[in-house]
Amino acid sequence: xxxxxxxxxxxxxxxxxxxxxxxxxxxxxxxxxxxxxxxxxxxxxxxxxxxxxxxxxxxxxxxxxxxxxxxxxxxxxxxxxxxxxxxxxxxxxxxxxxxxxxxxxxxxxxxxxxxxxxxxxxxxxxxxxxxxxxxxxxxxxxxxxxxxxxxxxxxxxxxxxxxxxxxxxxxxxxxxxxxxxxxxxxxxxxxxxxxxxxxxxxxxxxxxxxxxxxxxxxxxxxxxxxxxxxxxxxxxxxxxxxxxxxxxxxxxxxxxxxxxxxxxxxxxxxxxxxxxxxxxxxxxxxxxxxxxxxxxxxxxxxxxxxxxxxxxxxxxxxxxxxxxxxxxxxxxxxxxxxxxxxxxxxxxxxxxxxxxxxxxxxxxxxxxxxxxxxxxxxxxxxxxxxxxxxxxxxxxxxxxxxxxxxxxxxxxxxxxxxxxxxxxx
Length: 425
Ligand code: TYD
Ligand code: ZN
Fold this sequence. Notes:
CATH class of the largest domain: Alpha Beta
Strand order of the largest sheet: 10-9-8-11-12-15-14
Number of domains: 3
CATH architecture of the largest domain: 3-Layer(aba) Sandwich
Number of strands: 21
Bound molecules: thymidine-5'-diphosphate, zinc ion
């Protein structure tokens, strides 16, 4: 396996751009166990322009820890949000499955909660405003809070009122003064990205009306473990939640989980509804908590076994790709995902294996992947010049993509799924 691409670029461990926590971010416990190390690797969304390829690249440790007190799985090396979210290429509206998903979220809220007609919805981490647009169809007032300036500008262009700030208590106080209390606050894929969760919750507590509902979505740790979705681990994802640590967290702020649902996004997530002043634990919360106990999410041993599995996947995938390549096949990657960059960097899969990666996001086309420097091209290139095999780096959209690429597969093209076990389909 030694002729697979090594890191042959100038790398720098960016000591000044991250801090190392010494306590669990939910419960404050100091006894944390490291069970997996995937780095050092570059930031998963730090795509490069051609003229940056021979410059020194910033790498960061990617070590994963388990808290034996509240069961939170987490990174302790926290990259400064200013570095992480400065220019952010993830545009929600660019993905049709996410648009469909957000429509479902809004319907879910309206089916289960009474919201007044002129109610206010605030979306934390509102991206290009795709979710808020779904809410605005119901006639509600909407407001986005988005820290990435390029994306906040895009949202404004799309006529989504957006505050270009990190959401925290201070921001909440200012928003409250101008807009009053919120009937719905949403935070999809925000909790996993946030180091100081207490600051967000103090803000939510301040902004949410007494009968309001706070809706969060986070990737579910049980899916990560069951499907060995190790590539969803990267510096942006600081916490990997189960219901147990979340229960712990909300209680600290006098809030309670009033409903929980499994949802099929980002490799399997949970949608959690939280309210103030409701203390009864609903049955579906009890059920998931007991499922988590059954899966031994409170035991270090579970995570040690997961880490062993990750190494097996790496060895198997590299072997498979090398064999195909040595047999003269052309291979590309499908979807220049962030998770793909964890996978490629951890397995050291470079341009000696993948000719290019195709991706539908215009922003990413023409750029190169961080660390492994694989060029990104449009989907048209993939169709014009189809490879023998393509590694499905956007496996979270596997069903939609396999359906979309029927023609490619009919003509003999093959997809390779990296997880839960590398296989050609
Ligand atoms: P995403 O699901 O956001 O994954 P991550 O959070 O790991 O970055 O990214 C999906 C990427 O895949 C996005 O860049 C668009 C791309 N994509 C395609 O190229 N073709 C497709 O058919 C789909 C569904 C996505
Ligand atoms: Zn803890």
